[in-house]
Design brief:
This protein is an all-alpha fold and about 150 residues long. It has a domain at about 55-70 and about 80-150. About 75% of the residues lie in helices and about 0% in strands. It has eight helices and no strands. Helix 4 (about 40-70) packs parallel to helix 8 and helix 6 (about 95-120) crosses helix 8. The radius of gyration is 20 Å and the shape is flat. The N and C termini lie far apart (about 45 Å).
């Protein structure tokens, strides 16, 4: 997704969109079939894919990250002075690079949990179903928390 945000050329962007579409459908859709679609159809398909991924995968990764950081699920709703603070430089906004680093750390933690608890290799973890893997990690982290609080 980092490539998408840095791309200004429409042809490059459409090429990236079509590559994502082919990857999601395990190359069952040929490049020629995608080239025959209207630009709006390609963009709408890409948007649908990103919404599904965000809802199913990224949501679980955010939940796991929250569990691992020890948060109780409370979200900051903001205050009347937040905009003023940002405008005057009192708060640092998270850059896109920092967000990706945070996401990378969360993925590393997820893989470590899977390797340690499932006793699978790194390759086995990468080849397993992502949704099931994330569900297992959520279960394992919650289970570990429960057993620690009982002790």
């Amino acid at each position: 997704m980092g490539l998408v945000s840095k791309t200004e050329d429409e042809n490059d962007l459409l090429y990236l969109y079509s590559a994502v579409i082919r990857a999601v459908f395990n190359d069952r859709i040929e490049e020629e079939e995608i080239e025959q679609l209207d630009v709006a159809e390609i963009v709408n398909t890409f948007k649908a894919i990103t919404e599904i991924v965000d809802a199913s995968v990224n949501g679980k990764i955010r939940d796991i990250s929250e569990l691992l950081s020890g948060g109780q699920g409370e979200t900051y709703e903001g205050s009347a002075f937040d905009e003023y603070d940002r405008e005057n430089g009192y708060t640092d906004e998270e850059t896109q690079e920092e967000a990706w680093k945070s996401y990378g750390k969360a993925l590393d933690n997820i893989l470590q949990i899977c390797i340690k608890n499932m006793r699978n290799s790194y390759r086995d973890c990468l080849e397993s179903d992502l949704s099931d893997l994330l569900d297992y990690v959520v279960f394992q982290v919650e289970y570990d928390r429960e057993t620690q609080t009982k002790e």
